């Protein structure tokens, strides 16, 4: 069966619940299992409505661009983000927060720059951030009403290795404040 590729403007309201302000997409399991989406014109927020329903992101394997932010939060059974392996462009930020079973972020290896920071916080099973080795630019965002650190990696109980960030610090650019703290660095 051939599936039609479509952007956000062609979403199926039975599958995606759209929230106007802020522009955020909430996914249900049906979308993640079957979608053939290649570009999001706004932000992409992946969060379980019912714990244990999102175990992979394979339905997003054709996604190459998110013009807003990528937020992967509060997913109890998500073990990896390998379904995002084709993703190379993120316009705003990456937040990976409170994903209890997430062991790695290898699926983000094609992302090279993030304009408004990367936050990886409270992912209890995360053991490395090698998937961020492709990053060559991370920027802090600041305005009068909103600010974000360039890089914030904190409270990941099993994260004992941040070697994946070595290329970013050695040859890339981190503009602004960064904080790597309270992880397992044994």
Order of helical and strand elements: EEHEEEEEEEEEEEEHEE
CATH architecture: Alpha-Beta Horseshoe
CATH topology: Leucine-rich repeat, LRR (right-handed beta-alpha superhelix)
Q: The biggest beta sheet, please?
A: 6 strands, parallel
Output the CATH class name: Alpha Beta
**Residue share in helices?**
under 10%
What low-confidence regions span 5 or more consecutive residues with pLDDT below 50? 1-36
| Number of beta strands | 16
Strand-pairing-aware structural class? mainly beta
Bulk shape? globular
Q: What is the rounded Rg?
A: 16 Å
Number of domains: 1
The average pLDDT score comes to: 77
Strand content: 25-35%
**Terminal residue distance:** 49 Å
Instruction: Count helical runs.
Output: 2
In the sheet with the most strands, the strands line up as: 4-6-8-10-14-16
Descriptive overview:
This protein is mainly beta and 186 residues long. The chain has one domain: Leucine-rich repeat, LRR (right-handed beta-alpha superhelix). Helices cover 6% and strands 26% of the residues. It has a six-stranded parallel beta sheet, with no helix packed on it. A three-stranded parallel beta sheet has the order 3-5-7, with no helix packed on it. A three-stranded parallel beta sheet has the order 9-11-15. Strand 1 (16-19) and strand 2 (24-27) form a beta hairpin. Residues 1-36 have low confidence and may be disordered.
């Amino acid at each position: 069966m051939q599936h039609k590729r479509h952007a956000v403007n062609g979403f199926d309201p039975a599958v995606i619940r759209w929230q106007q302000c802020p522009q955020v997409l909430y996914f249900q399991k049906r979308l993640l299992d079957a979608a053939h989406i290649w570009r999001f014109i706004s932000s992409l927020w992946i969060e379980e409505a019912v714990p244990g329903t999102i175990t992979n992101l394979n339905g997003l394997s054709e996604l190459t661009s998110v013009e807003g932010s990528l937020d992967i939060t509060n997913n109890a059974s998500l073990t990896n983000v390998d379904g995002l392996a084709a993703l190379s462009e993120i316009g705003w930020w990456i937040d990976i927060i409170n994903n209890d079973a997430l062991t790695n972020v290898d699926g983000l290896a094609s992302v090279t720059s993030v304009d408004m920071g990367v936050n990886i916080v409270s992912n209890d099973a995360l053991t490395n951030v090698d998937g961020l080795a492709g990053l060559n630019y991370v920027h802090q965002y600041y305005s009068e009403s909103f600010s974000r650190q360039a890089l914030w990696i904190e409270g990941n109980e099993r994260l004992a290795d941040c070697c994946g960030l070595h290329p970013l610090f050695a040859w890339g650019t981190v503009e602004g404040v960064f904080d790597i703290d309270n992880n397992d660095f044994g």
